[in-house]
Amino acid sequence: MRLRKLLALFLTFSLLLGCTSNPAKPSSASPSAEPSAESSLPAAPGMNGKAVGFLFVGGTDDFGYNQAIYQSTVAVDNAFPDLNIIRKENIPESAESEKAMEDMIKSGARIVFATSSGYTKFAANVAKRHPEVIFYVQGGDQTLPNMGTFAFSFWKEMYLMGYAAGKQSKSGKTGFVVAFPSSRLLLQVNAFTVGLRAAQPKATAKVVFINNWCDPVKQADAATNLIDEGIDVITQVQNCTKTIHQIAEKQGIKTIGYQVDGSNIAPKSWLTGLVFDRSKLFIDMVKTAQEGRFTGSRYDGSLILQNDTEKVIQMASFGQSVPDELKHLMSRQLSDIQSGKLKPLVGPIKDQAGAVRIAAGASPTEEELNKTNYFVEGVIGEIPK
């Protein structure tokens, strides 16, 4: 009994010693440690990502719009070796695109490029769910705190393509295959035709809409019908360009390219074209978002990039049949256009019905031109209602 009492007293004394010992100091990683004001701030949208996503409406081997963008994503890949570049091709402009963007985000993307205007509302839906991600939509018309849009002004260069067509056409009849009757694409047709008539005042441009960004069957039908009607130069504004170049080569007419250089497809028929290189632009856009500078940057909103300064759009190589005199003339005119010395769409300019649309001496703004809803004199064809 006495032994049990002594043991109980010893245990009680030991417990009291434990209760009065000094507590250990909390480590810097302890949950009770106060975070610094800087560490408690959330990262800006676009920062701390492991990947950059690119959404394509078509295949990256379309010899046109999507291929040109793909080539620029390779430059992004090289410029940011620590980032994974995620590319998703042939994604419809529908709710399906939202899943593709969500998958990119799950894979670590904090910057997403939706490279077609048809993705706008779907990108906006995903952007609202993911304020930590920056979205860049090409050709879009809606912006958000973490979503900007960008587009290119290239009607001046399209004027030059029309001028080349006018210099090379023997029949005075040219053809223009267009994806959709949107204002920006109508503007390209008008600029081409004004340039065409600057070189050959009575020349015409017959327009065919295929109502699709890429439909080789419709393209082939359109090109064949235009050739049957007597055109000897053809151009296009749509995503895939290969079919029309091949038909031009087979039928022995001249072809003018769009987005990529197609001279190797149609070596005999190739005249020239417009080449789009977004490499430097994309690298700057990624860097801006990655450094947390999107808000307040030029990409924070709707941006129409002027080629005078951006130099995204360049003239493609000349075909083997183009005389040196025309090469020198076009190179000089391109410099004059980019410097502002040559202003292609200065009035008076009339529409198909003869009504003055741009007054004598007037030079419309980019905003006014991007609302184009008519064809100029010299265009054959109607704008679908």
UniProtKB/TrEMBL annotation:
Q: What Pfam families does the database record attribute to this sequence?
A: Bmp (PF02608)
What's a single GO CC term here? plasma membrane
Any idea where the ABC transporter substrate-binding protein PnrA-like domain is? 51-297
Under InterPro entries, the record lists:
ABC-Purine-Binding, PnrA-like
Arranged from A to Z, the UniProt key words for this protein are: Signal
* Gene3D superfamilies on file: 3.40.50.2300
Q: Which residues form a coiled coil?
A: none
Task: Using the record, list the residue span of the signal peptide; answer none if the entry has no such feature.
Answer: 1-24
Disordered: annotated segments: 24-44
Q: What is this protein called?
A: BMP family ABC transporter substrate-binding protein
